[in-house]
């Protein structure tokens, strides 16, 4: 067991304790989806790692917990809990009714109409990156496409300078994935906050056509957002916007590189892309959020106490055999695909429309220009696990 394990609490039955560590477990670094599948059996079990936490294993229970914020609070987010912030991220770590007012502020900025207005910029960015890569015949897919594509889009939306994208990605990688070095995570959080503080002051003096300026002009509960609230919200957007689509693209393109028949279907029928994106998000749901029990209760057949942490993994939910026929089979035309890759309840991902658009654009345009590609023989693909999983490096080769 990890050094962060603890003794079993009295209210946890001995038979429900498992040596399960979704952050540092070796099996999660090799194939986290197989590791999650291997833990099925009990409806719920207890992990002694990271202070101890319950793990729900069914989509029905996970969806219900996500839809009951009064019983399962989103504060603090993550297992282990993020250590880089002294206050809650708004609105991510607020629960209704406080969460609702701030969510209303963000909703129009990421609504389908707002995303549609950015379609041309999303398409242009994607095409420019692929045009530069296509003649080379190979690339580090993460560093040369999966990171710069969504990062360029999102930094532009927030009003961050595109030339500093590498710096932003570096901060975010440390903040989200350096679980073994909490001091480094704190420093990264402090540096991000310092940068955003200066950006907000600049936008207060000279507003521009970006989300930061728009937030400074927004109201919540009939009053203007304070600068510290704007900073808190932009921090949350920064953390979420610079990592999630990169992770989704990494898993999606690794699968397609290793499955030429499915890749050929997308090349032959681009109209299949939207449903293919949904299916690949389902199979590779990579966010593992956490909730905190607010009061003693019974749930999923066990007694939980106030303060208990609960893992509500989208990977487990979206591959539940009770909910999906042949869940391990990738069906690019799967219908009725009610996966939980974007979560559920009041904290369902606000940027889901943008993420879907970026994913569909990437899959469609890449296969239009580079239809036949593969992972080179002998390449070891490693994965970072934890709250937000993703591939560290993915080399692809094709005929240039």
From TrEMBL:
<comment type="similarity">
    <text>Belongs to the cytochrome P450 family.</text>
</comment>
<keyword id="KW-0503">Monooxygenase</keyword>
<dbReference type="InterPro" id="IPR017972">
    <property type="entry name" value="Cyt_P450_CS"/>
</dbReference>
<dbReference type="Pfam" id="PF00067">
    <property type="entry name" value="p450"/>
</dbReference>
<keyword id="KW-0349">Heme</keyword>
<keyword id="KW-0408">Iron</keyword>
<dbReference type="InterPro" id="IPR001128">
    <property type="entry name" value="Cyt_P450"/>
</dbReference>
<protein>
    <submittedName>
        <fullName>Cytochrome P450</fullName>
    </submittedName>
</protein>
<keyword id="KW-0479">Metal-binding</keyword>
<dbReference type="InterPro" id="IPR036396">
    <property type="entry name" value="Cyt_P450_sf"/>
</dbReference>
<dbReference type="InterPro" id="IPR002397">
    <property type="entry name" value="Cyt_P450_B"/>
</dbReference>
<keyword id="KW-0560">Oxidoreductase</keyword>
């Amino acid at each position: 067991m990890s050094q962060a394990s603890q003794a079993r609490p009295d209210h946890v039955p001995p038979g429900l304790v498992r040596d399960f560590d979704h952050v540092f477990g070796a099996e999660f670094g090799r194939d986290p989806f197989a590791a999650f599948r291997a833990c099925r059996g009990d409806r719920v079990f207890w992990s002694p790692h990271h202070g101890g936490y319950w793990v729900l294993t069914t989509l029905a229970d996970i969806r219900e917990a996500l839809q009951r914020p009064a019983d399962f609070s989103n504060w603090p987010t993550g297992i282990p809990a993020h250590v880089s912030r002294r206050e809650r991220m708004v609105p991510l770590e607020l629960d209704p009714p406080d969460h609702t007012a701030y969510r209303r502020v963000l909703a129009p900025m990421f609504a389908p109409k707002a995303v549609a207005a950015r379609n041309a910029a999303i398409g242009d960015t994607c095409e420019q990156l692929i045009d530069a890569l296509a003649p080379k015949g190979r690339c580090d897919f993460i560093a040369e496409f999966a990171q710069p594509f969504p990062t360029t889009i999102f930094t532009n939306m927030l009003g961050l300078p595109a030339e500093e994208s590498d710096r932003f990605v570096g901060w975010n990688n440390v903040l989200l994935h350096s679980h073994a070095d909490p001091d480094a995570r704190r420093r990264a959080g402090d540096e991000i906050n310092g940068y955003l503080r200066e950006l907000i002051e600049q936008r207060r003096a000279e507003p521009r056509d970006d989300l930061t300026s728009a937030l400074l002009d927004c109201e919540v509960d009939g009053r203007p957002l304070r600068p510290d609230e704007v900073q808190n919200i932009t921090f949350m957007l920064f953390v979420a916007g610079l990592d999630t689509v990169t992770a989704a693209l990494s898993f999606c393109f690794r699968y397609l590189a290793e499955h030429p028949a499915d890749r050929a279907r997308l090349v032959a029928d681009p109209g299949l892309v939207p449903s293919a994106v949904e299916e690949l998000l389902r199979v590779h749901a990579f966010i593992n959020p956490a909730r905190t029990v607010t009061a003693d209760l019974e749930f999923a057949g066990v007694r939980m106490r106030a303060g208990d942490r609960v893992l509500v993994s989208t990977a487990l939910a979206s591959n539940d055999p009770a909910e999906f026929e042949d869940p391990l089979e990738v069906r690019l035309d799967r219908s009725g695909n009610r996966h939980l890759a974007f979560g559920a309840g009041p904290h369902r991902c606000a940027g889901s429309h943008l993420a879907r658009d970026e994913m569909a654009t990437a899959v469609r345009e890449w296969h239009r220009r580079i239809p036949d590609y593969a992972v080179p023989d002998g390449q070891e693909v490693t994965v970072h696990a934890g709250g937000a999983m993703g591939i560290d490096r993915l080399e692809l080769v094709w005929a240039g």
